[in-house]
Predict the structure.
Amino acid sequence: MNNFRLTVAALACALMTSVSASAADAAKSADIAHHNLKPADFPRWHQIVPNVYAYEDTLITPDFTFTTNSLIIVTNEGVVLVDGQDNETRGKALVEAIKKITPQPLKYMIIASDHGDHVGGLPVVKAAFPDATFISSSASLKTMQGQKRTVLPTELVDDKRSLKLGGTEIQILNLGRAHTGGDLVVYLPATKVMFLSEIYDRNLFPPMITGFPTEWAATLKKAQTMDVTWFIPGHGFTTGTPAELKADLVDFTKAVDLVISEGKRLHPTGAPCPTEKDCPANAKANWGPYANATAAAGQAPRALARMYAEIDGKLPK
Ligand SMILES: [Zn+2]
C-alpha cells in the first residue's frame, strides 16, 4: 500500500471512528433533537406488551427537550394510569390518548412520582374520570398537600398493594426511597413489565435535588433482582428492546453510584459544595462517561450538593 492509500485509509478510519462515536453518543442521549424528533412529534405511545402502553410527552428546557413518561394499563374492567404529566395541556392530551386506546374508563391513577412534571395534569385526569381512585405513598401525599393545583390521593401504599382488574394483576410497590422519597413502582408479574417512574431517568444525569443517593442506588439494585423483562423509565425514551432498556438501567445505576463515590472522595478534601449554586467541588469531580449526559451541566452540582448533604446527615429522615 502506498502513502496516498495509507492516508486515505487512515482518514476513512478516523471518519468512521468519529461517526460511530457520535452515533453512540446520540443513542445514549435523552435529548429528542439527537434522535431527529421535535416537540410536535409528541405525545406518542406504543404498546409494550398486549394492553400495556408506554406514553411519552415532552419536557422542554431552553437547552434540551426530553420525554416525561406515563404507563397506561388496559383491562376489561377499566384502565390503570401511572403518572400524570406536567400541566393541564399535557394532561388533556394524555386523557385523549387513553380514550383513543380504549373505551374503558380510568379506574386507578397511581402517582409514582409526586413531582410537578408528573402530577400537573392530574386535575384534568380527575375531571375526565371523576370515579377514578387516586393512589400514592403517604410521603407523596404529604408533598402533594403543599402543591397548588393537584388532586390528592385518597388511598395510600407504603409497602405493597396488589390490584386485580379484569384478570390482570398490578402490583404497586415501594422498593425504597430514590428520587422523591415517596417513590413507588408498578409491576405486572404476568408480563414482567416494571414502570420505575423517576427512579429510572434513562440517559439523563441523575436528577438528585430531592433524592436520597445511597438509598436510590439500593432501590435501583433491588429492582434489578426482580423478575423483570421490561424496565420502563419515567424520563428518557421508553423505546428499544428489553436488553437495551436493561443496559441503560445498569448504566443509570452506575451514574448514581458515581455521584455517591465522587461525593465520598471529594467531601474529605474540603472542596465545598453547600448548594448547587455554590459548588466548587463540582469542578474537581470526575464524571467520566456521564460528564456529557443529557442535563449534566445543571444536574451534576445538584447531585453533588445532595450527596454532601447525605454525608453531613442533613437529608430528611
Ligand atoms: Zn422529578
Notes: Residues 113, 115, 179, 198, 207 surround zinc ion (CB under 6 Å). Residues 3 and 80 are 66 Å apart (CA to CA).
